[in-house]
Amino acid sequence: MSQTRMKNFKHKGKDQEEMRRRRTEVTVELRKNKREDSLFKRRNVPSEVEPDEEEDTESRKQLLQQIEFISANILSETPATKLAAVRTARKLLSRTPLAPIDQLLQCGIVPELVNCLVRDDQSTLQYEACWALTNIASGTSEQTKAVIKCGAVPLLIKLLSSSAKHVAGQALWGLGNVIGDSAECRDYVISHGVIQPLLSSIRSDVSIDYLRNVSWVISNLCRYSNPSPPFHAVCELLPAVCHLILHPDTAVKADTCWAISYLTDSGNDQIQVVVDSGIVRHLVPLLEQDNLKILMPAIRAIGNIVTGTDEQTQTCIDAGCLNQFGRLLLHYKENIKREATWVLSNITAGNDIQIKAVIDAELIPPLIMVLETGEYKAQKEAVWAVSNITVGGTSDQVGYLVRSGVIGPLCRLLAVRDAQIVQVILDALSSTLRVGLTMLCVCLSVCLSICMPACLPVCLSKSFIPKYSLSVCLSIYIFS
Questions:
Q1: Where are the beta strands (DSSP E) in 353-446?
Q2: Is 341:374 a contact under the CB 8 Å cutoff?
Q3: 374, 386 Cβ separation under 8 angstroms
Q4: DSSP code per residue over 112-142
């Protein structure tokens, strides 16, 4: 992850890099989850096609015969023969999981499949060719680029306006696979003018299946942050995103939320464009969803927005996002709980007014429960949330945190084998001790029984712990 992304967290206090952070390991893990949650490529496989068993000698022989048939007939001038060859190729490419994409590329069928796209007088041939190209583009980057190099993209864009709806739908699917391959492929398709024909297809008379594909393609157009989509493309897409997020269909709404999460993963300037669109007020209510397909990308999008400026964070708070986090922090799914805690840690990295909003929403008790009983990945996020309050909050806010019982869970986590988290905990204790004598007495009463067995040996054995953190442990030791 680039250093620029590491600096996208608000900050104040003694360490400008830590208050609002995109720690590398957290971001990488979240992005891996994103790839699993939202497919960037989809193969068109008929429902009646069963997964292939391990190929035997006979099936390999049949495959070779089919490829020979395709090679011999795909250039035929006889429409029925040509269609049979293209259809055979499409059926082979729809096999799971052993689609012979490379074998078909080697026999040179892609240029002829692309040529079939211009046959407006044969919509069935166009459809079969689109389908075959869609499944080729669902493969590796090299396989996708083979489709691009043969000139398929401009023709697929043109087919979005086809009067044959099944052809237009399959062309859309194929473009979605090309766009989803990489930022380079995304920008290539954008440069050929895909956005306006795509947006023109968002009409009340289109089928729900078509609209689902439209929302998925839009999410792919917003995907990838290195580099981000062209700014003009973002501005063109946002009105459609604001429209689609209100659609009642789960798949449409889910892909639209993913689109927002991708757009807000590219720095404060792009976050501001999203905030200015007014979409936050439609996004926040989705935190009430029980459907994980919608809830996960909605949390991710809110989380990305609150990594921005205090003003951008305040937009989410004003829209009522904190009202949902009591439930999310106690969610039965650990990944939801972890991401909710991550979001909260970035809100507490804001100003003391925003910290007060967290306290007023009664989120400290469930946050401490995560600190106490959550899985370790969620506990780490809770440590950051608490530490941010101790550094950026007022003395009254830190006092409330201590009275709520945060010291014990914090100290118990000092035994973990994670240098960074141990340091953050010690920083939090150090900041708390500086608040005043009352806080010192409370900390001492807890730490004497919990902290010393774990804290002092860790500090004395780890040279990377700063001296001011070591002083916390030594102070406790002296007072004891």
A1: none
A2: yes
A3: no
A4: HHHHHTT-TT-HHHHHHHHHHHHHHHTS-HH
**Nearest by Cα to 476 from 445, 434, 432:** 445
Does residue 407 surpass a pLDDT of 70?
A: yes
- Determine the straight-line distance between the first and last CA of the chain, rounded to whole angstroms: 44
**What's the CA gap between 401 and 230, in Å, rounded?**
44
Peptide bond into 227 cis (omega under 30): yes
The answer to whether 227 and 4 have CB atoms below 8 angstroms apart is no
Q: Residue 312 class from Cβ within 10 Å (0-12 exposed, 13-18 middle, 19+ buried)? A: buried
pLDDT of 425 higher than 90 = yes
Q: If residue 479 lies in a helix (H) or strand (E), which one and from where to where?
A: helix 467-479
Question: To which residue do tokens 């024909």 refer?
Answer: 197
Q: What is the DSSP letter of 436?
A: -
Residue 20: name the closest of 262, 348, 312 by CA: 348
pLDDT digits (tens, 9 = 90+) for 289-348: 999 999 999 999 999 999 999 999 999 999 999 999 999 999 999 999 999 999 999 999
pLDDT > 90: what percent of the chain? 73
CB 195 within 8 A of CB 221: yes
Is the Cα torsion angle 438, 443, 445, 446 positive or negative in sign? positive
> Cα(35)–Cα(404) distance, rounded to whole angstroms?
38
Alpha carbon distance 185, 107 (integer Å): 24
Residue with tokens 């902290």: 451
What is the identity of the amino acid at 309? T
* pLDDT value at residue 41: 73
What three-state secondary structure class fits 360? helix
Residue with tokens 């949390």: 299
CB 292 within 8 A of CB 336: yes
d(CA 453, CA 448): 9
90, 128 Cβ separation under 8 angstroms:
yes
52-56, 62-66, 159-163, range with the lowest pLDDT: 52-56
Q: Are 387 and 427 in contact (CB under 8 A)?
A: yes
Which of 28-32, 74-78, 233-237 has the lowest average pLDDT?
28-32
Rg over CA atoms, the chain: 28
